[in-house]
Specification:
about 160 residues, globular
Length: about 160
């Protein structure tokens, strides 16, 4: 992809949004709704400039299925470990995590998305083990936006 002024401006706006999301998630575990909306609009408009609606929709469906399977696996893990089914959404995964998961997932091929989210989850868990985040909650949204920005930058500058 050719490096243009509009692409550089897009990356700068995305970087600012990513950093603010990461700071809010790391510090307060709450992210401003409007910031999530702006971030998702940025991602989806960029995705639609590179792909057609059918590919974006297919990627969205796959990311939703992957998210559903992941939530079921986490629920089963805690059932086997604790003996009861815990509430996953709004307790372990925030709604911001889910929304960002789906938005970022629409930009990637299914194989890349699976590797990306597996890497991001693993990285977040490793950081949690080392730094022990507030309340034992993992700021997954912070890791997703920062890793995705790095992934996108590498992808754009390598082609």
């Amino acid at each position: 992809m050719e490096l243009t002024i509009s692409l550089i401006a897009y990356l700068l706006v995305l970087l600012v949004c990513s950093l603010i999301i990461a700071i809010q998630d790391l510090k307060w575990r709450l992210i401003n709704v409007w910031l999530i909306v702006i971030y998702c609009i940025l991602l989806l408009t960029f995705s639609l400039t590179r792909n057609n609606w059918a590919i974006v929709l297919m990627n969205f469906i796959f990311s939703a299925a992957y998210l559903g399977i992941s939530l079921v696996v986490v629920k089963l893990y805690f059932y086997l470990k604790e003996g009861f089914f815990p509430e996953i959404l709004n307790r372990m995964f925030g709604m911001a995590d889910v929304i960002l998961f789906l938005c970022i997932g629409t930009l990637m091929e299914p194989e890349i998305m699976t590797c990306f989210f597996t890497f991001t989850f693993t990285l977040a868990l490793c950081f949690n083990v080392v730094f022990r985040f507030k309340n034992g909650l993992i700021p997954l949204a912070a890791f997703m936006v920062l890793v995705y920005f790095g992934f996108l930058t590498v992808e754009l500058f390598s082609t």
